[in-house]
């Protein structure tokens, strides 16, 4: 994937928090002096772009204190094992996501399930892109770690994990309380190549392991005191999380989504 960044590919949100656009997916960098927290890492093909984004922000890859995982789909952990193995960066996640990251099992939409949705706008272009970017590669994290303590983590930005199951069993969002930011992963997004709408929304049904739990997690996110959302897909959203979650819930009607199947993006 190209490593050259457009002006809007690395967005300075506030303080030292940055939203970076990879190939159809995002990651977040939280700087604190010469160290940083990295949240997610893009597709396998995004590895060099990830390193380039750190360099653009004045960071060496060794300056990353930890890589926090929202969930273990290939477009979010594509560079995780390389960062762990090559740069000794711990890869942290919810305890229920640890076996998924090890690939003890895989919650991922199958090729057959994607084909059943092939006539929906955007599905085939997204699928071809996902294949090129490594969406079906075997990329286990060999030593994924659960969060060491409950509550805020002792990392740049003091991120607080919020268990938001549904997209996967151990999906987590991260609240950055000092910055008023919610890093929502795929529990709440603002766009996707397979979606026909923009703004706060739930991903189409075929991408969720358990849609009912995903809806419940949206309700839980509505209680977070933050005014900016950095999603796994789509641009940053400025406005209360409560209102955004309510909008996403309202949009999550049967006629606004398609396909009921466990999956990943």
From TrEMBL:
Classification via Pfam families: Lactamase_B (PF00753)
Domain Metallo-beta-lactamase, residue spans: 24-233
Transmembrane segments: none
Highest taxon of the lineage: Bacteria
SUPFAM superfamilies reported in the protein's UniProt record: Metallo-hydrolase/oxidoreductase (SSF56281)
InterPro entries linked: Metallo-B-lactamas, NDM-1-like, RibonucZ/Hydroxyglut_hydro
PANTHER family recorded: METALLO-BETA-LACTAMASE DOMAIN-CONTAINING, METALLO-BETA-LACTAMASE SUPERFAMILY PROTEIN
Name of the molecule in the record: MBL fold metallo-hydrolase
Organism: Streptomyces enissocaesilis
Lineage summary: Bacteria, Bacillati, Actinomycetota, Actinomycetes, Kitasatosporales
């Amino acid at each position: 994937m190209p490593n050259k960044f457009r002006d809007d590919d690395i967005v300075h949100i506030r303080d030292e928090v940055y939203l970076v656009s990879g190939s159809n997916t995002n990651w977040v960098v939280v700087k604190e002096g010469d160290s940083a927290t990295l949240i997610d890492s893009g597709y396998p093909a995004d590895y060099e772009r990830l390193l380039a984004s750190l360099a653009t922000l004045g960071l060496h890859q060794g300056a990353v204190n930890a890589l926090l995982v929202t969930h273990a789909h290939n477009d979010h952990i594509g560079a995780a094992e390389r960062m762990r193995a090559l740069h000794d960066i711990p890869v942290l996640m919810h305890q229920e996501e640890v076996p998924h990251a090890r690939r003890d099992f895989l919650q991922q939409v199958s090729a057959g399930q994607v084909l059943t949705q092939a006539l929906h706008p955007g599905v085939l272009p997204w699928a071809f892109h996902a294949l090129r970017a490594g969406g079906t590669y075997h990329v286990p994290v060999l030593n994924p770690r659960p969060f060491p303590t409950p509550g805020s983590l002792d990392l740049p930005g003091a991120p607080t994990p919020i268990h938001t199951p549904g997209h996967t069993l151990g999906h987590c969002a991260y609240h950055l309380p000092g910055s008023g930011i919610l890093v929502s992963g795929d529990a709440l997004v603002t766009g996707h190549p397979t979606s026909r709408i923009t703004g706060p929304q739930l991903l189409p049904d075929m991408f969720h392991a358990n849609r009912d739990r995903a809806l419940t997690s949206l309700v839980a996110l509505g209680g977070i005191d933050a005014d900016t959302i950095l999603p796994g897909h789509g641009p940053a959203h400025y406005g209360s999380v409560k209102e955004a979650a309510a909008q996403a819930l309202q949009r999550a009607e049967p006629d606004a989504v398609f396909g009921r199947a466990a999956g990943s993006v």
